[in-house]
Amino acid sequence: MIKLQLRLTLFYLPVNRYTDSWLGCFCLRDTLNNKLSVNRLTGSLGAEIQGLPLVNLNSEQVATIESLLHQHLVLFFPQQFLDIESHVALGSHFGPLDSHPNLDNPFTKHENVFELAASHGGVADEWHSDISFSANPAKISILNMIECPEVGGDTLWASTYAAYEALSAPLRELCEGLTALHDASPHGKPEINVIHPVVRIHPATKRKALFVNQHFTRRLVEMSHEESNMLLDYLVRWIASPKFTIRYRWHKGTIAIWDNRCTQHFVVSDFDEQRVIQRVTVMGDKPEATAAPRWQPYVRRENVGATSRYDQQLNDALGIDILTLESNRKKVK
């Protein structure tokens, strides 16, 4: 009996054209005649890329990465082992860089690199989009895994496109008319805050995405404290639904690139060994709303009681001075 094997490899030219195949993986050739393999990891987001060294990239290769990022939202490049200057050079292809506005590096001092070691402050084990408390939040994050545990310390990402699109039509309409207050209180700086739309439009793809997160979003501006808690809690749990997520197991030398405008991420704190990451952050633009807010901010001007303390941060952010019971507090001499 003769057994026949069929091998199918797809090649696309030019490199910035790509598509999904029914195989879930395809190959193409870049301008240096290297075979580039793109392997989808889940239905919602994530792809692992082989065959593209991330050093000395030309403009077509950068365009290919951007196009793949728009399609897959988070990209993984194993076995890159970039040094710090190559890491910074990679990030510079995509826009201006920043390290971190509030946190210091434990080991490596570099103005464009943020470093986090698990033995020096833990991990980001709440769902978040990087630096959403800024008026111009992070656009793209590029993480270099320097040291990782043999087991544990995985990272999860969620597609906020998919989460928005799976909401019912009435809830989508409600969310598009709302804004939310984000702040840096996880970094001990609640005075750093900003108001963003709950639903934003991606500037490149024009798709809509939810833009609230567990870590930095404090309050829905147009709702009471109680209403905000209920809806915000629902939205952050909804975004973390397994069907919208990917969980990636790290290996030393892997580079991950993700789009903060349409994803959130979460680090699993289930390890004892050293975990050191270095991140380059490409700063972004002001989130674009689908429409102007449909309602005025929730401000209690009458019948103010003890629960008005929950509105104080929002009032401060809006520049509103409301007389409350807390105003009667004795002054410290």
Overview of this structure, please?
It is a single chain. The protein contains six helices and 18 strands. It is an alpha+beta fold and 333 residues long. It has a domain at 80-289: Double-stranded beta-helix (4-Layer Sandwich), CATH 3.60.130. The strands form four sheets. Strands 1, 2, 3, 4, 5, 6, 7, 15 and 17 form a nine-stranded mixed sheet that branches.
End-to-end span in angstroms? 97 Å
Report the C-alpha radius of gyration, rounded: 22 Å
Shape: globular
Specify the structural class.
alpha+beta
What's the number of helices?
6
- What ranges have pLDDT less than 50 throughout 5 or more consecutive residues? 1-23, 29-33
Give the name of the CATH superfamily of the domain at 80-289.
Answer: Clavaminate synthase-like
Mean pLDDT: 86
**What is the CATH class name of the domain at 80-289?**
Alpha Beta
Helix content: 10-25%
**The CATH topology of the domain at 80-289 is what?**
Double-stranded beta-helix
How many runs of DSSP E, i.e. beta strands?
A: 18
CATH architectural grouping of the domain at 80-289: 4-Layer Sandwich
Key words describing this protein structure:
three-stranded antiparallel sheet; 333 residues; alpha+beta; Double-stranded beta-helix; disordered N terminus; nine-stranded mixed sheet
